[in-house]
Amino acid sequence: MNSFIITGFDHLQNQKLLGFLILITYMLILLGNGINLCIISTDKHLRKPMYMLICNLAVVDIMFSSTCSTTMISVLLAEIKTVSYYSCISRTYFYHLGDFTECMALTLMAIDRLIAIRLPLRYHSIVTNSRTFMLIFLTWLAGFAVIGFVISIADSVPYCQPVIRYVFCNYASMIRAACVNPEPYFFITAIISLGPLCGQFPFILCTYIVLAYSVTRLSNNSSKKQMISTCSSHLIVLFSYYAPKLVSILLTRIGVELNLTDRNAIFIVASLVSPLINPTIYYNVPYCQPVIRYVFCDYPSMIRAACVNPEPYFFLPAMISLWLLCGQFPFILCTYAVLAYSVTRLSNNSSKKQMISTCSSHLIVLFSYYAPKLVSILLTRIGVVLSLTDRNAVTTVASLVPSLINPTVYCTRTKEIRKRLADVFLHKRIVPNHLKVVS
What SUPFAM superfamilies does the record tag this protein with (predicted)? Predict the structure, then answer.
């Protein structure tokens, strides 16, 4: 068998819509986890056991979601349904490796929180960077060994049909495509799944019960509220990972037969929801001063009010701004250069004047948006240090001037809108064209 055909989406009508939703979700997963990795890896103050565990979880989330999302996006948006055998089996390996290591990462983080709350004075002596790294390494080593054994089984069976009825490559989809009775092959994976669901999941819940008991004994109300908020957000992550698995098992046990669409939906939720939620839950910037020195709340003002080195946090916005200023802005200018060339070739003077008027008004809108950003960057580059008052003035202009100019240019200079405004303010009655009687 050289290749497989993914047919899990064939019965759906709005395939493009689902494809765009999965693409947006996948991009948000990459963005959220990428931000966590960039910030933690570039800030020396964050090289602590807790942040090492968050980095590990971010890597797992990216790997876990990438193996399934790329297949689904290619099937739904690019309409490429064929996957080679070796690509399918490698994606299966990394998908289940991500699933296994995600479970282990959540367990390590639960243990870390338990030690931090129950043994706060001994936490730094028990949980060190070297021990944390060693535990992370062992979880990955166990994952490589266990999932390698499972994939070797899938690789050894004969395949007689090139069709995968699921939405991406995994162990279940490959075994069901093989020329064998699938039940004995699912017994092995059921035993492996029994560990996380009947061992690690109850253990993590027990740690939260212990944490809840510790919270009730706190005398400080602010500390109590903070602990409840932290634990509740972490429980959201826990249930976003385990809930799809538990729902699938419980429904099967009580006699509810899940059809292929239901199973595919559970697979998609289990693969994308947890990696999407994790970066928003597990990393929050600590704030130590209640003062924002800017004129309103925005990203730089909040980061400068936090108890962190702001430079790593400005790296990603700088990359986004670079794309806007060095990508989109030159592209828009090129379109206007093409328009200017087209205008020079017009023979009709009235058309030429109208085109020049339209383009010039649009250029005013363009520069009203980009000019404050360009001025700020250029002044910084040539060594001019902008004071807080100057920065606030630039921010205010950038926020208000484009919104003030846009309706003036794009509405009042449009003939149809001017006519409509005149009709409204002069109280003229508008007769629809199909009711007009030609005398």
Answer: Family A G protein-coupled receptor-like
